[in-house]
Amino acid sequence: MSGGGTAPGFPGTALLEAQEERLTLSRFTHEDAWALGSALVGLARERRAPVAIGIRRGRQQLFHCALAGSSADNDAWIDRKRRVVERYGESSLLVGSRFRARGTTFEESSRLDPDRYAAHGGSFPIRVDGAGVIGTVTVSGLPQTEDHALAVEALEHLLAT
């Protein structure tokens, strides 16, 4: 386990918090959404990952792609994970990890409809300096820690360009 005392196989809350702090952008334009989405598609294709990808700024969907092997279920997971980020202002994996660290689960203790909210990894806040969380990038189709890692990797790529 790494920092935060979360369940085996999951990154600790301290690591997840550090990722969010480190992955704060100076801006996020339509062109940035395209670059982020394109980076995700490229990474997923290299790995033959059967994922769907969604990027939103506020209520507007700026990017969506469903790669071979993904399904409409992945779109539903994108919506459920995204709603967690919009509600809590943190990645869906971090929210789920906080519940696990308290010895419970999101489904048992959040009092939110599990048909509408899923604190499973894969949705990450798009945070802009001086503005806070302005959107989300979400991946669905892999195990939740891999969905999360793919979104993080693409955000790291966007920050490096």
Automatic annotation (TrEMBL):
Pfam families: HbpS-like. It comes from the Bacteria. InterPro entries: PduO/GlcC-like, PduO/GlcC-like_sf, YBR137W-like. Belongs to the UPF0303 family. This is UPF0303 protein DDQ41_07785. The lineage of its organism: Bacteria, Bacillati, Actinomycetota, Actinomycetes, Kitasatosporales.
